[in-house]
Structures are given as C-alpha cells and as structure tokens.
Amino acid sequence: xxxxxxxxxxxxxxxxxxxxxxxxxxxxxxxxxxxxxxxxxxxxxxxxxxxxxxxxxxxxxxxxxxxxxxxxxxxxxxxxxxxxxxxxxxxxxxxxxxxxxxxxxxxxxxxxxxxxxxxxxxxxxxxxxxxxxxxxxxxxxxxxxxxxxxxxxxxxxxxxxxxxxxxxxxxxxxxxxxxxxxxxxxxxxxxxxxxxxxxxxxxxxxxxxxxxxxxxxxxxxxxxxxxxxxxxxxxxxxxxxxxxxxxxxxxxxxxxxxxxxxxxxxxxxxxxxxxxxxxxxxxxxxxxxxxxxxxxxxxxxxxxxxxxxxxxxxxxxxxxxxxxxxxxxxxxxxxxxxxxxxxxxxxxxxxxxxxxxxxxxxxxxxxxxxxxxxxxxxxxxxxxxxxxxxxxxxxxxxxxxxxxxxxxxxxxxxxxxxxxxxxxxxxxxxxxxxxxxxxxxxxxxxxxxxxxxxxxxxxxxxxxxxxxxxxxxxxxxxxxxxxxxxxxxxxxxxxxxxxxxxxxxxxxxxxxxxxxxxxxxxxxxxxxxxxxxxxxxxxxxxxxxxxxxxxxxxxxxxxxxxxxxxxxxxxxxxxxxxxxxxxxxxxxxxxxxxxxxxxxxxxxxxxxxxxxxxxxxxxxxxxxxxxxxxxxxxxxxxxxxxxxxxxxxxxxxxxxxxxxxxxxxx
Length: 666
Hints:
Layout: E1 2-6, E2 16-22, E3 29-30, E4 35-40, E5 45-49, E6 54-59, E7 66-68, E8 72-78, H1 79-93, H2 95-100, H3 105-108, H4 112-119, E9 123-126, E10 136-142, E11 149-150, E12 155-160, E13 165-169, E14 174-179, E15 186-188, E16 192-197, H5 199-205, H6 209-215, H7 219-229, E17 234-237, E18 247-253, E19 260-261, E20 266-271, E21 276-280, E22 285-290, E23 297-299, E24 303-307, H8 311-323, H9 329-342, H10 351-359, H11 378-387, H12 390-406, H13 411-414, H14 419-424, H15 441-456, E25 459-467, H16 469-486, H17 493-506, E26 513-515, E27 518-520, E28 527-529, E29 531-533, E30 536-538, E31 541-542, H18 550-565, E32 579-583, E33 602-617, E34 623-638, H19 644-659
Parallel strand pairs: 28-32, 32-33
Antiparallel strand pairs: 1-8, 2-4, 2-7, 3-6, 4-5, 6-8, 9-16, 10-12, 10-15, 11-14, 12-13, 14-16, 17-24, 18-20, 18-23, 19-22, 20-21, 22-24, 25-34, 26-27, 28-31, 29-30, 33-34
C-alpha cells in the first residue's frame, strides 16, 4: 500500500520548506524513522525520517525545490503491501482441501508457515534519540535475553543518557534472536543494538491448526477473514512536543473506534510538562483501534492508535478462536503469573518506579508487580502509595489459600490463617487523615524542575521599588482609545516587558545561558512569560522580542496567554526562552523570590501594585509627601554567572526606563 511522504511543519509559523538533499533514491529499501531527506526552513535545517518501512517508489519534489507544508514529496511502497498480497492466495486456496476431509485440514495448514515466516522477517532494534541534543545512550540493563519472546511495545532494555533514563519498547513482536550491544556499553543513536526475528508470527500461526483439527473446515474461512481484514493501517504515534520531552499523557480521546477522521483533524489531547495540546490525525480514514487509554502515560513514538486497516475486525475475528482454545490452560497460566509476581521477579522495575519509591521511602520488595514477569509498573507503585499495604494484604490471603490447598486439611494447616491479620496490622495503623492524590504529570515535572534549579544555581534575589505613577496615568488616559485603535487591551505587562528588553540589551550577561562550563551569550532576547493555569503553570515564549515594538509585544503577550489557556500552543512556543517574567503580584503579594528557569541565569518577579506615600522633590529642590503608585520587582539571578553589580545595574536601567517612560505605545 503506497504511503505519501509529506513536507513536515517544523513550527507553527513555518509554511514551507526547501529540500536540500535526498538521502535515498527510487528503488532503495528504507526502514521506518530512517532519515530520508534533508530540508531547510527559515528557522531550522533538519533530516526528515521516513514515516513507513518499505521501498522508495517515487520522488515528486527534486532537490532545491521549495514547497508548502503537507505537500507530497515522495511515495513509499509499504513493505506490508507485498506480504499481504502474498498471503492472500494462500488464504484463499486453503478452504478447498479443508472441505475435502477432516484429515486434509492438517496438510492445508502447512502453507501458512511460509507465509508467517515471510511476514516475520528480522527487525533491527536501534538506539533511539531521546532528544534533539542527545547523540548517544548507555544500555544499563537488558530486560529480555536471547530466545525470549517479546510483544510489540513491551520494554526490552533500559538506557541512560545525560538527560533521561528510560525503558525502550520493542519495535515489533517476535523472538529476540541477537543482542549486539552488552549492558554498560555506550553507543551512538541509530546503532543496531539487537535483532528481533519473526517468532511472533510463527507463534501466532501455530494455534490456528488446533481449532481446525477440532472444528474442521469452518476454521479456515475465519483465518481467511482475519488475513483480509488485517490490511495495513496508519499508526498514530505519541508526538515529541519539545526537545526534552520524552513522554506524554493522553488526557482525552476526541474520537472513538469506528469514527471517521479527516487528516489534521484533532483526535486526542495530551499533557506534558511543558504543553497541553490537541494532536491532529496523520491521515484520513476510520479509527479502527485505540491502543492507549485516557490517563495513560507513554513514551514518544509509542503507537497509541491505528487509522484504517482491519485491526478492529482482525481482533474480533480472532477473539472466538482464542476463546475456543483449551480452557484448562487459563488457570495454569494465571497461577504461574501469580507465582512469578510474588517471588524473585518482584524487584524488577523501571528507573521512574525506583525514583518514585526512593522519594516516598517505599521498599519495592513490598510492592506486587502486575507487569510482564511480575515487573513493577508506575501504576503499581502509585496504587501502593494511595492504598498503603493493600498489595501485600491481597498477596497474603492468596499465599495462605495456596498453602492450604497444597497441604493436608487439618489443625496444623489452619494455624497460619489467623497470623495473616497480625502481619498486616502495621499497615492498618491510623493513617494521617486526608486524601492521597497522585500528582499530575505536569505537576510532577514542575516539582522536578524546581528542585533541579535550586540544586544547580546559587540563587540571589534583589528587590527594587519602582514608581509606576507615570505609566498608570498614561494607561488610564489611553486604554479605551488604544483598544479601539488596535483591537487589543492595554495592560501593564507590555510596559514591563519592553523595559526588561531594553535593559537586557545593555546587560547581555543577564540574557545569557549556561552550557556546561561555558557561558552562551544569546543573540536574541526570547522572553518567557509565566501563565498560571487551572492545571499547572506554563511559560510561553516571545521569540526575538528585541525586534518587536510596543504594539507587537502587546499582541504577542495576549495571543500566547489565550492559546496557553486553550491548549493551542505549539512545542516551539514553550521552549528556547532566554529570560523569564513571572507576575505573582496579581494575587496581591508585594514581591516574591522566584526560581530560575534552567538553563537561563535570571528571572524577574513582578510584585503587586500599591499606593504609598513618597517623598517628592520639585525642580526647585523643595520636598513634599505625595501618594504615588509603586510596584516592587525582584530579580533572581544565578550567582555563578551574574555578579551583584551586574544585577544592580540591570535593575537600575529597568527602573529608570519605567519611571521616565517616553516610548510610543502605538
């Protein structure tokens, strides 16, 4: 099935891109996410990965050409198309011999094996890129060994980079046939670290003959329907919403299975530590499968849904066959799972789980794991925190029941039974009254960032009192005419932002960033303005604020704040800031001591506006007391980079610009 390769949108304001180089030529095989071509826009040069595995069938846009976003630049013939076509005749031919006699149904199943083998070709497992600036990763642990069967999206190894520790899911179902990079080794991104063979395809095909032998010919048409229905669909992936974002939480599905969706129509909402956003559909078609439910948090590039294809029908067709299988195997497997979950495997967990356990002083040996092979998942640890020792309490009766069943009934076997409540009695101690609610994803990351910033930067704060009387009078005089003239309200934030930009131009060290052991003096002034939301805090960024006049800054502030509250911000609008403003004065406080937004070196806290008596000196030098409007501003700065003298000079220029305002407001 052909797949269109589109010119991607590399930012909200980007409308076109230039293809600078094709990395593949027609006829070349290509893997999913393998770089296919290079583009250049007015903001970024980038390699664009292939959206599908297959063969590059046609290049529609030549090197050097500039085209609009979403233009089809190439066509890839999907690898699934050929295998599906090959499988169709075998599935169609199967019913004839099956109807001849029950004995013939067994040979009829033989052709299915080559079909499964052809579909189950080896899949290379690559070291993923966990962020734009990440170039390598260290494999800290293999969660599977050679010969193990793995499912698609099941964690197979753990990696550590300079920004994140993460579990890496399998890109395909099958058998782990080779591990190429051992634990502890550090390799570059896109290095092949393992190979997964097509064992899953054979394993899936193997149960088919069993029902055929029992039920005769009707089993074969079911297999045929499954093959026909399971046509290729378009996978919907969890997008990466910023350089440092490694996962996202699906907060709401806007479509349900069976709904028709148009390309670029929003299909679900996500929440990350930087942005809440609606995610558009990558293709037009019918939503056939939702793989990740609301409230679940998954890594970037995880398949969360499927559009088109026959996933829904295939699952429905296979369900009866699975149900008619040997029922006796279910209890045996469940017993095995309980045993594995309650014995030595319980200690297996992800870095995130171990971090949560460490922060809450939880002994992971007391947490029952419900993941693969008894692995402790994030839900397990959060459930343990919210319910105390409930998993242990549930495990105790189960163990007691198993022990009772295994021993001869009698007085000795009944003795351990009353001891179970005694063992659970410490957990039943009087808890602190209240409700334990797990932090949202955004709140968890905010907490982490705040702690990291305090550990990283030696914070110093200096407070200046600014006489805002001149600006207050100007605003009162002009606000009605200003709104009629420009279509936006006149607030105090543009005055403060413009004064900060002017002062940052004079003192570039306050606009700098820390890069390892070096100082980066940023060319542009990108001002982040903190916006309080009902569900957390977000900091949209006014890019190149030094190039905007007063009216331009006013419109940018209102636009970003409105779209932040309606979850319409793009990823590049919440990153790249060089200096931050936070206005906590709207809640009445006189001033605060804000925490720096890393890797920036300064943040300006805006206090509340009050009327106070001040000493006023006229032109003749006479002094008098008058009531003026004053406001306190706090500069928090990183004392590694910014000295007290630099901070004082910056604040003095900032104060003078506001008190002696003369800029045209438009």
